Amino acid sequence: SNKIKNAKLVLLGDAGTGKSSLVLRYVKGQFVEFQESTIGAAFFSQAVAVNDETVKFEIWDTAGQERYHSLAPMYYRGAAAAVIVYDITNLIPLIIIQATFARAKKWVQELQAQGSPNTIMALAGNKADLLEARQVSAQEAETYANENGLFYMETSAKTAINVTDIFYETAKRLIQA
Ligand code: GDP
Ligand code: MG
Questions:
Q1: Is 20 in the pocket of ligand 1 (CB under 6 A)?
Q2: Burial status of residue 22 (CB atoms within 10 A of its CB: 0-12, 13-18, 19 or more)
Q3: Which of 56, 96, 99, 133 is the most exposed, having the fewest neighbouring CB atoms within 10 Å of its CB?
Q4: Residue 159 CA, ligand 1 centroid: distance in Å
């Protein structure tokens, strides 16, 4: 019996952390150095098989900029899963107000307060290929994730490290939920 489960998944996190790149890598197996910034949100779908079940992700890739913040609830409302992305290197031009890890924590708080109570939450420490520029330790992120009901993975849209894995793990948890 092949059961199919449709699951809305939202990507949240600062602009420039690599949300669109993670989706592009996951859905199309591609990476571009100069990914255009997302306006509003973009939609993708991707099916993933877990044992004898299929999860059909309906992926909403959001823009991340503060000026689009008021739109965010449209994308996380009713979401079965959220992937919250930060940049382990934090070196993002133009974003000087808040580090992306701190911004990720704000998204977690917002989801906990206003999202669906059973949303599976994944924390992606992206740009893991840039280890020499690391600003947030894996230990710190792991501890934060454990204390706040998320699971944590370090990803790289560039080299594809853990990209399929973070979506697969999310699908697995959705099926177990
Ligand atoms: P978004 O605003 O969160 O959607 O971020 P983008 O996907 O547009 O990526 C922002 C920039 O970071 C682009 O120049 C990407 O090429 C780059 N980028 C994204 N993911 C990675 C990664 O894993 N490693 C490296 N080195 N660069 C990345
Ligand atoms: Mg984007």
A1: yes
A2: buried
A3: 96
A4: 11
